[in-house]
Amino acid sequence: MNGSLATWLYAVTAAPEDGAPPRGLTGVADEPVRLVESAGLAAVVGSVPLADFGEDALRDHLEDLEWLERTARAHHRVINGAAGHGQVIPLRFATLYHDDDRVRAMLEERRDDFTATLRRVAGRTEWGVKAYVDPRSFLPDPDEPAGGEESPGTAYLMRRRAQRQDQETAHLRATERAEEIHAALAALAVATAAHPPQDTALAAYEGWMVLNNSYLVPDALGAEFTALVTDLGERYPAITLEVSGPWPPYSFTAPPKRAGDAQPEETPS
Amino acid sequence: MTRAIERREVALVDLLDRVLAGGVVIAGEITLSIADIDLVRISLRALIASVRVENEEAGEGDLHDRREGGPP
Asked: Is S-adenosyl-L-methionine set as a keyword in this record (chain B) (predicted)?
């Protein structure tokens, strides 16, 4: 391979005792994955050609759906693979350094943050839950249409206004149910994170996505959590629930907010 | 209702929610000027554009009509 290389970062883990990289994993450029260790931590990295992963090249590639899908899946595959060997902290897609020395320096500099995050996510797993509704299921009962003597134009406008109000009512009702579902799920989680509703075309659904959340759940409660999703799906037949996971803790790498956030730091079990 | 998911691989949209918007953000050296928000926006723009094209090619245009329909 000609040309210069850059170091693509996948994840940070505690340095393994044997120092061995996860076997058989290949990364976003089909490159073998290796470890860069420092400060008791290890970065899971690969060397990728700058020609494909430099800033300009990346910018172009990001507009290419096939490239994006292939590369995002490769990034995830490495993180997932590394997670099989120990707790990982996933790094944001497209984190690149010029060389391994810079990576080591970064690990040293951020050791305290990484160590705290590793402690916080240890023994816990991210689960995703989405909820969809068909707005029609939440519309108010169609009362007698109001009025009778108006001109056709007025009647039309009133009907339109009533429809709009009905939509708002339906949305409110659906959102309230989603909040109840979220509260029930959050009771089993040590932290939650909200994602924006997904694009209807991308996610191929109709109606409204009223929940798109991640839950950080203690491993011991994982089965209970997925069973609860099923229960909730039965309790709320008008809402379609979809669970995804287990995920590496992508959505829980930021330090928890000071006040209000679910759980105070505890000693890891 | 709960939809059983039996995909061999995770759904791309769910993956992108996490891979592009999650994970630790370190100002790497090379993508320094591709801010987070850009990463998501650029990629989603590409995705949405390509999905729209696919849908149009498939000739399914009546998705939007349903919205206006109100209660049946």
From this structure: no
